[in-house]
Every structure is written in structure tokens, then in C-alpha cells.
Protein: T-cell surface glycoprotein CD8 beta chain isoform X1
Organism: Galeopterus variegatus
Amino acid sequence: MVQTNQMVMLSCEAKTSFTNTRIFWLRQRQAPSKYSHHEFLASWDSTKGTVRSTEVEQEKLTVLREGTRFVLNLTSVKPVDSGIYFCMTVGTPELTFGMGTNLSVVDVLPTTAQPTMESTTKKRVCRLPNPVTRKGPPCSPLTLGLLVAGTLVLLVSLCVAIHLYRLRRRAQLHFIKQFYK
């Protein structure tokens, strides 16, 4: 998360040889869905240097090479610059798509809560009642309900992560098909 009008530097490590290697920077503006797409921002190759999209302010964006790293430098960021930024390397013969970096630009950074100095009590361990030993406090229905709800949230999160991975993979394949037509 970064504040409005700040400078942001995103880096991408290229693990390919630099003969005929091109680096592309892409942005996905909204949360991933079947309607979202990857927007081309800039590219770099050894013969042309940096090539920017016509839809991007020229002075706002630069791509720099530092050894095997490529840095996307954004100046005076605004909330509309928020999104997931991806780098993609196109070499011979492989194409590598980065994991993406989520950039959130806000007008005011959230404040952090101050730690309290109150002592904490020892946590009670909740156990299901054992008819033989009867040790430990019994779990209340509320506690069991929260445990079940937490487990369901984790399962749903896993399903969403798998779905987003499939969407990203589909976007990669779609981009490859368009790129090599």
C-alpha cells in the first residue's frame, strides 16, 4: 500500500539469457474476474530499449535494467494506478509470467493500533467432554460453531485460490496465442 503522489519501484528478475529477451510489464486493474484483462504498460528489449504504451503518461513510467533485474518505476501514483502488476519475460523459446504484485494507492494511509499494556489471561484449552475422565472444560456450541466456520472459510479460500490460478493460467495461454499469431 502506498500513498498518493509517491514513487513506486517494482522489480522483476529475469532468469533467461538476454539474447532476444523481451520484458513486458502488464497491469490488471480490477479484481480478477472473467471480464478483467491484462493492460500493456511497457516493454524492454536489447535492441529497442523501453517501449511505452500510448495509453500511459510517458513521464510517469520508466523501465530500467539492472543486471538480470528489470525495474518498473512509477512516479506520482494515483488511486487509479492501483492494480496487480505483472512482468513477463519472452525469451527463446520460453515465456515466463510473474506472480504479480498488488499495488494499492490510497489518499491516506491507515493508522496502526497502539499495543496495549494490559496483561493477558492464560487461555483455556477447550476439549470435547470425555465420558471416562471428564477433564478440561467442555466446548460450548458457540466455540464449536466458530471452529466449523473457520474451517469452511479456509476451504472456500482454497477454492477461490484455485479458481484465480486457473484464470491466470487461461490469461497466459490467451496472451501466448495472441502474441504468436
